[in-house]
């Protein structure tokens, strides 16, 4: 009996690990498809960009570098860009974008999120919203199967290239320094919830994903409205091209 229980538990752990690995692999595949879309339909626009290079080195990517860009008007030269695309919200009219303050890592410890991580080399963020895409819709879950997204499925893509420094100055103008955001993150985790989640006060809001069993990282996020990113953007636009 004990052997059977142990074997069942072992199978459960293996299946769980396989599911988690599979999910990560699917996420990576989708991210590559979106990167391919951006390379061919945005960065290749010579009226806007004079050069771009994708940083495929793992070490560079974990330090916040997906692409290095220069603009054709010479206002931006070899800027380090971190791409942040709301892939899991494809075909959803998402009016915000979140900035990660912290998350729970693989060993169950709190880790600083990418927005508060001052060790990252990121100078700009490329925020992206997949407005329209030809992907399957799961009627049982009521969600789009974004893991099935391919480059040529994307029909409409809205984007904003925003300086990290501009975002920080915007937040400081609202009374939120990085240090104060870090303390706010601590308070949210200690309390276990956000008071009035997703309610914007002076254009700033917070959200804590701690009830979704599929979100093992349980991130605490700062939310800004899409219109804020558009106002802060050095460059922005909508792509309605789907040929890859």
Topology at a glance:
Blueprint: H1 2-43, E1 49-54, H2 58-62, E2 67-71, E3 79-85, E4 96-104, E5 110-112, E6 124-133, E7 137-138, E8 143-144, E9 154-163, H3 164-173, H4 178-191, E10 205-208, E11 220-225, H5 226-232, E12 235-239
Parallel strand pairs: 3-6
Antiparallel strand pairs: 1-2, 2-3, 4-5, 4-11, 6-9, 7-8, 9-12, 10-11
Helix content: 25-40%
Q: Any idea how many domains?
A: 1
Order of helices and strands: HEHEEEEEEEEHHEEHE
User: Tell me about the biggest sheet?
Assistant: 6 strands, mixed
Tally the helices: what do you get?
5
The stretches of 5 or more residues where confidence is low (pLDDT under 50) are 1-22
Gross morphology is globular
Strand content: 25-35%
- Give the strand order of the largest sheet, numbering strands 1, 2, ... along the chain: 1-2-3-6-9-12
Q: In whole angstroms, how far apart are the ends? A: 56 Å
Task: Please tell me how large the radius of gyration is.
Answer: 20 Å
Number of strands: 12
Mean pLDDT comes to 88
- How is the quaternary structure best described? single chain
Class by SSE composition: alpha+beta
List descriptors:
244 residues, 12 strands, alpha+beta
Q: What does it look like?
A:
The chain has helices spanning 2-43, 58-62, 164-173, 178-191, 226-232, and strands spanning 49-54, 67-71, 79-85, 96-104, 110-112, 124-133, 137-138, 143-144, 154-163, 205-208, 220-225, 235-239. It has 244 residues and is α+β, with helices and mostly antiparallel strands. A six-stranded mixed beta sheet has the order 1-2-3-6-9-12, sandwiched between helices. Strands 5-4-11-10 form a four-stranded antiparallel beta sheet. Residues 1-22 have low confidence and may be disordered.
